[in-house]
Write a structure and sequence with these properties.
about 15% strand; single chain; five-stranded parallel sheet; globular; 16 helices
């Protein structure tokens, strides 16, 4: 991990948002992939399965088979063969995520308006959802749980998972078992932008979906951005992010372990410690050096160690960063959490490690990144639902509303709109 020492002194002339931008700049910026991804999407749109297989062999595995769909019987077999302790962990994760999703506020609202009409807003599940489950550096059965359980709770008709094959052309067995556990309907061995294209446009083998969700590489996220409008997406998610706010009493080993844990997601991850304690920074930096040397799964991710005047200033800087994950390991953490305005998920107190949220806490690990926590939140059942309006107008409401609708319509230059509403005031006067 690459540590950089920064500070935000009282009366600092540099605005907080500029320091936040400097911290964000420590993580690698996405490469310019727009044109390359556009070419992949176009190839899949025009050539379907053949293009998907071609790109999967080029980018994921030269041994990828031509048959994209994994046979359903294989999913059930992998679940039977799954290590019992791993199965128990996935079952607990699924149960907790399901409980949280089921507690989401109901979305149906009916409003009776003064003129007599009723406007009802309903939440309706989409018909088909596509879930991207990354591969390559590691397998992510937890992402199957995080995306597919909310889709099930939402009432989605069919769920299709796309996941890349490994170097040997075979899928990860634990990912397949998680798909069986979460009652996924279809699993396809395809990765990258070509998988997003297949889910969005459809091919001979893959039916198009209505929503695409899930984490993935820069290619995957750029592809999701480009197909937005053809389908709905959960978000354009980037590398993992963690900001830790800690005071002098925080256990430095817990802080260092949490930062190092998130570095396992890759060298593009953004890791930040905000603290008023210079001694904590010294100790954490030393521990991070030890962890980097002794834990091969950690990466050379950037770490910003920032000294701040106090915890309130730390929250203000964290809000400017708007991180995916925010940990509060300090005295009065619960009160401080109430002041946080922009974070994908806030972990309150020394026991609440981000790693719990990654797996079994019941919150979702598909969260806004890149500052999107300013306007976006975690994936949930609502990701897979759409709002639908139902309007009912009794004759009394028609009579009350028609003159107003007619006036506005004629002012906009749409006289037939006006005729349409006027004809309903006295239906008998409608000319054939």
């Amino acid at each position: 991990m690459r540590a950089e020492r920064l500070s935000l002194a009282s009366g600092e002339p540099t605005p907080v948002h500029e320091l936040a931008q400097r911290i964000r700049a420590l993580a690698s910026a996405p490469p310019e992939l727009g044109d390359e991804v556009r070419g992949i999407l176009a190839a899949v749109f025009h050539r379907g399965d053949a293009a998907v297989t071609e790109f999967t062999r080029r980018f994921d595995s030269p041994n990828a088979v031509e048959e994209l769909r994994v046979p359903p019987a294989r999913l059930q077999q992998t679940l039977k063969e799954l290590d019992p302790s791993v199965r128990a962990g996935l079952e607990l994760a699924a149960a907790n995520v399901r409980a949280v999703c089921e507690a989401e506020p109901p979305g149906d609202v009916s409003v009776q308006l003064p003129q007599g009409q009723t406007v009802q807003l309903k939440e309706v599940p989409v018909g088909r959802a596509g879930v991207y489950v990354p591969g390559g550096r590691a397998a992510y059965p937890s992402s199957v749980v995080m995306c597919c359980v909310p889709a099930k709770v939402a009432g989605v008709g069919r769920i299709a998972v796309a996941t890349p094959p490994g170097p040997n052309g075979e899928p990860d067995q634990t990912v397949l078992a998680a798909c069986a556990l979460c009652e996924v309907d279809e699993v396809y061995l395809m990765g990258g932008a070509q998988a997003i294209a297949a889910l969005a446009f459809g091919t001979d083998t893959v039916d198009p979906v209505d929503v695409i969700a899930g984490p993935g590489s820069y290619y995957v996220q750029e592809a999701k951005r480009q197909v937005t409008g053809v389908v709905r997406i959960d978000a354009v998610a980037g590398p993992s992010e963690l900001v830790v706010i800690a005071d002098a009493e925080a256990d430095p080993r817990l802080v260092a372990l949490d930062l190092a844990a998130q570095s396992e997601h890759g060298s593009e991850s953004l890791l930040v410690l905000l603290t008023p304690s210079a001694s904590l920074i010294e100790t954490v930096q030393s521990l991070l050096d030890e962890l980097s040397a002794s834990r091969p799964s950690t990466s050379d991710a950037p770490v910003a160690l920032v000294e701040v005047p106090g915890l309130e200033a730390a929250v203000g800087l964290a809000d400017e960063i708007a991180p995916e994950h925010l940990e509060l390991i300090c005295d009065g953490a619960r009160d401080l959490a109430g002041a946080v305005k922009a974070a994908g998920c806030v972990f309150v107190g020394p026991g609440a490690a981000t790693a719990f949220g990654d797996y079994v806490a019941g919150s979702n690990h598909v969260l806004p990144t890149g500052g999107a926590a300013r306007f976006s939140g975690p994936l949930g059942a609502a990701t897979f639902r759409r709002r639908q309006a139902l309007v009912s107008l009794p004759q009394s409401a028609v009579s009350a509303l028609a003159p107003h609708a007619s006036s506005v319509a004629r002012a906009e230059g749409f006289p037939v709109h006006a005729e349409s509403v006027e004809a309903r005031v006295d239906p008998q006067s409608t000319e054939g």
